[in-house]
Design brief:
The protein is mainly α. About 70% of the residues lie in helices and about 0% in strands. It is globular.
C-alpha cells in the first residue's frame, strides 16, 4: 500500500509539474497563433483584392528559400524536426523556427501558394517549448514532454480543437511506430504526456479566443436516419455501408497526396541543380495551373472564397458547392506548393480535399452532402497524417458527436487504405 501511495503521489506531482510548465508556453503559443491567424486573414483578403500578386509567386519562392538559408537549414525540416527531436533527441529545436516559419507562411499565402496553417502553429509551439526548456535548463525527459505539449498547444489553438490537439500531439509521434520501432518508450511517454498536453491545448485555445479570434463553423444539419433508438448517436446500416466505401476513396486520396508531395520534392531536388530555382519553378507551375483552369479556387487556404460561385471548404458542405474534380486539383496545387519549397502546412488543404471529395461521393452515392463533406474533412486528414483517433475527436469537436460511428468508420478505413507513409514521414 505504501509503495502504491508513493507511486501515485509521484505520478500526480509529475503531472502537476509538467502541466505547470506547459501553461506559460501555451499562453505565449496561443497569443502567437492569434497574431498569426489575424495576419493570415489580412494577407488573404489583400491577395483577393490584388489578383496580380499571384504573378510574383516565383519571386516569393526565392525569397523564402534564402530566408531559410539565412536562418538555419535545420529549421526547414519543420514538423518533422520537432517529431524527430522528441523521438530521438539531437541538437534541439532552434528558437528562430517560430519567426521564420511565420514570415515564410505569410509570404506563401500573400502571393497565392496553396498551403495550410497547422504547420506554422505547431512549429511555433514546438519552438517556444524548446526555448522555454533551454531557459529553465530542463532535463531531456522534461524537454520531450514540453515539446509534445507545444504541438498540442499549436494545433489546439489554430483549429479551436484542444482535445484533438492533445491526441494529435501524441499520435503524431507514432508515425512509423506502428512498425513497432521503440514502441515501449514512445508509448510510455505518450501516456505520461496526455494530461499536460490537454492542459496546453485548452490554455492555448482559450488564449487565442481571448484575442477575438473566431474559427470557422461547419455544420452537419441534415437529419440522419437512425436504426438505434434511445441514444443521441446516429447509426443507419445503409449510411454505414456508404461510409465504409467512401473511406476507401478518402484513403486513396490521402495516399495520392502523400505520393505526389514526396515525389515532387524528390524529383525537383534531383533534377534542379540550383536549389533556389526549385520554388521559382514551383511558383511558375502554380501560376500555369491557375491560368489553364481559369480559376483561383485552389490557391491559399481554401476555407472561404471571395466569389459566391467559388469552391471552398465551407461551400463543400452544400449541394453544388464543389466541382467533380475539385479535390484532385487541390491535391495537385498543394503538392507543388509544399513539395517545391513553400511553407504553411498541409492540413487545411487536406480538409479542402476531403470535404470536396466527400461532396462528390455524396452526390454519386445519394448520401447526405454535409455529412460526407464532414467525413472527408477528417478522414483524408487521418489517412495523410496517420492520426485516426485525433481526427475522430476533431469530428466531434467541429461537427458534433451524433455521427461519431461514421467518423470512426471513415477514419479507420482511410487510415488503412492510405499506405504506410504519411506527410510527416521522412
Amino acid at each position: 500500500m505504501d509503495k502504491q501511495s508513493y507511486s501515485l503521489t509521484k505520478v500526480l506531482t509529475q503531472q502537476l509539474r509538467w502541466s505547470a510548465l506547459a501553461v506559460p508556453m501555451a499562453v505565449v503559443t496561443g497569443s502567437l497563433v492569434a497574431l498569426f491567424l489575424w495576419l493570415l486573414d489580412r494577407v488573404t483578403i489583400f491577395r483577393w483584392q490584388q489578383p496580380w500578386l499571384l504573378f510574383l509567386l516565383p519571386i516569393a519562392g526565392i525569397l523564402i528559400y534564402f530566408l531559410y538559408q539565412f536562418a538555419a537549414k535545420r529549421v526547414e525540416q519543420g514538423n518533422s524536426l520537432i517529431i524527430s527531436e522528441i523521438n530521438e533527441p539531437g541538437n534541439g529545436v532552434p528558437g528562430r523556427m517560430a519567426p521564420v516559419v511565420l514570415l515564410a507562411t505569410l509570404i506563401t499565402h500573400l502571393f497565392g501558394g496553396s498551403a495550410g496553417r497547422e504547420g506554422t502553429a505547431v512549429q511555433m509551439g514546438g519552438s517556444l517549448a524548446a526555448l522555454l526548456s533551454r531557459w529553465m535548463k530542463l532535463s531531456r525527459a522534461d524537454v520531450r514532454i514540453l515539446l509534445i505539449c507545444g504541438i498540442a498547444a499549436g494545433f489546439g489553438a489554430v483549429f479551436g480543437t484542444p482535445f484533438a490537439g492533445a491526441i494529435f500531439a501524441l499520435e503524431a509521434l507514432s508515425v512509423g511506430l506502428f512498425r513497432i520501432r521503440t514502441l515501449r518508450s514512445a508509448g510510455i511517454l505518450s501516456y505520461e504526456a496526455f494530461i499536460p498536453c490537454l492542459v496546453a491545448g485548452l490554455v492555448a485555445d482559450v488564449t487565442c479566443s481571448a484575442y477575438g479570434i473566431h474559427h470557422t463553423i461547419y455544420q452537419v444539419t441534415t437529419t440522419l436516419p437512425n436504426s438505434v433508438t434511445g441514444t443521441f448517436i446516429h447509426f443507419n446500416w445503409m449510411i454505414a455501408g456508404k461510409t465504409l466505401l467512401a473511406g476507401v476513396f478518402f484513403g486513396l486520396a490521402a495516399w495520392l497526396f502523400i505520393f505526389l508531395t514526396h515525389s515532387i520534392k524528390d524529383i525537383s531536388a534531383r533534377l534542379v541543380k540550383k536549389k533556389w530555382l526549385v520554388p521559382f519553378i514551383g511558383g511558375l507551375l502554380v501560376i500555369g495551373l491557375a491560368v489553364a483552369l481559369g480559376t483561383r479556387d485552389y490557391l491559399g487556404l481554401g476555407v472561404l472564397n471571395p466569389s459566391p460561385d467559388g469552391v471552398s471548404i465551407v461551400s463543400a458542405f452544400h449541394n453544388g458547392g464543389s466541382e467533380t474534380f475539385s479535390w484532385f486539383w487541390k491535391i495537385l496545387f498543394t503538392a507543388i506548393t509544399i513539395g517545391m519549397g513553400f511553407k504553411g502546412g498541409e492540413v487545411t488543404p487536406l480538409f479542402f480535399i476531403g470535404a470536396t471529395l466527400g461532396n462528390t461521393l455524396a452526390i454519386v452515392a445519394g448520401a447526405p452532402v454535409d455529412l460526407f463533406a464532414a467525413l472527408g474533412f477528417i478522414a483524408v486528414f487521418a489517412g495523410a497524417t496517420k492520426t485516426p483517433f485525433a481526427c475522430m475527436v476533431m469530428g466531434v469537436e467541429l461537427f458534433g458527436g451524433g455521427p461519431i460511428i461514421y467518423y470512426a468508420l471513415a477514419c479507420a478505413v482511410a487510415f488503412y487504405c492510405s499506405g504506410s507513409r504519411g506527410i510527416y514521414s521522412k
